[in-house]
Amino acid sequence: MTPLILRVAIKGKHAVVVLGGTVKTFIEKSIAENNVKNIVGVRGVVDEITVEPTTLGKRSDAEIAEAATRALKLNVMIPDESIKIVVEKGYVTLSGTVEWQYQKNTATSVVGNIWGVKAVVNTIVVKPSVGIDARNVKEQIMKEFERHARIDASRIQVEVAGNKVMLKGSVRNFDEMEEAENAAWSLQGVTEVTNALTIT
């Protein structure tokens, strides 16, 4: 069965889409969600898609854990020695610490591509080895926004408390929202980004 749009709630010019159905892999589930996010006018996506590998694609938890460990070790961007993997009925939980948010995100992508994985729960904590100067971090983030053509920096407010960043304001679509969050995460020393942006 392929992913289906179960419901669409429309409010003004925007819509919230509920996805359902069954796919064979976790990566198919992610692709379906991202495709809907890219539709103009979609403001939110509720993903109720379930992953059910075919008989040939099913693996034991031990096999998935072994494949995940090997995949993380082969990826040069991920400090695999600091990441722990727990697998239960095809659901993978990642824990541990990394220095950068992109390393945490990459770990999810790498493990999510493994055949037999139904879902990935990423509880990895970002712990930079260096601190940040809170007085300058807001200015640095705004400069990052200006470097990205798809981000309208004039509509976004940045609040900084220690190593934590909050983004407020409005954006035009999911792409701009995610790009703004990634720009905030790109500064070394940031340990938390709260994305309170809304799509208007």
TrEMBL record:
This is BON domain-containing protein. It comes from the Bacteria. Keywords: Signal. Signal peptide: none annotated. The keyword Signal applies. The lineage of its organism: Bacteria, Pseudomonadati, Bacteroidota, Cytophagia, Cytophagales. Residues 1-53, 60-128, 133-200 form the BON domain. Pfam families: BON.
